[in-house]
Amino acid sequence: MDRLARQVGHAKETTHHYFQLLAGINPFDCASREALAKLPLTRKRDLIDLQKQHPPFGGLNALPRSRAKRVFASPGPIYELQGMETDHWRMARVLYAAGFRHGDLIHNCFSYHFTPGAFIFEGGARKLGCSVFPGGTGQTEQQVQAMADLRPDGYVGTPSFLRIIIEKAEEMGADLGSLKKACVSGEALPGVTRTWLGERGITVRQCYATADIGVIAYETEAEEGLVVEEDVLVEIVRPGTGDPVADGEVGEVVVTTFNADYPLIRFATGDLSAIMPGRSPCGRSNIRLRGWLGRADQTTKVKGMFVHPEQVAEIARRNPEVSRLRLVVDNPDAQDRMVLHCEAADAVGGLREKLVDALREQTKLRGTVEFVAPGGLPNDGKVIEDKRVY
User: Signal peptide: which range, if any (predicted)?
Assistant: First the structure.
């Protein structure tokens, strides 16, 4: 927590964005999770506009562009920089948990083009003492040939591409028996794919990382959730707000980093997850996430008007009698319709009319209200559910 206070101070002193966002906030008061939860969010979805206003990095960078090792572009475009340290994104610990060791040769099939994906894993490999073959994406037959010739110990890339490579190797009659482990990211790892690769002698572990933050959480040999990386602070908040939810409840992943070059404070990723109870059987003591559970940014357009999760959250804030809300949008008879589903112990005293008025005030659209018993709405993090069929 002492480190958190110093990082908040560093971000405020060295970046244009946090100098403005944290104006009036004393960094030394930010020495607890409760104090952190009171700071404003910086949302990933806003980075494109921020970077247009303050090019090229939106004023979030403490490291000047001239001192960056590399500069990348992710879809959006969103621009990120890499500092000079070997493992800028903290991947070495993840690779170690996936079974990689000093001296291994890693076949890297993340993209080396535009985005930092390949370099995120390569930095961790170099810190761990592994050598890397830069396979990149595509060219499946050439990937198989290189693996057959070089005999790598493991693979990093997406799980779907690893399966494609193994299928091609089997078709070609190539021996890829040296591959014993893989660390995958960038997409979901279906259980059927893990089993299929395991039947071919490849142990697969997954990690959750983003281009701007780096590693957020990673899988261990226990294969029970993802252990949060030790050099970030993770909160799970109710979508549309910055309010932390109870452990086990699905919400948006918010991350605070200790990266001095790009000091993100309460960075809302737009991803949904939940904190798992207890500790990992592998012995690591940090909190665990259930994994990627969807997207938190559920903004939708109804009758030509955008409706945002923040508007639903504001209705909840103004009506504490309601414990949870879910706005369902459908289109019977090809006409958009909004129904606000509300968890409430007691729906008397004009609460329905009050909520109908609040919905119209916030969204400028008409809708109806339905009540359910407390605990009656699904625990899936959804604030807006779009059920329209076209």
Answer: none
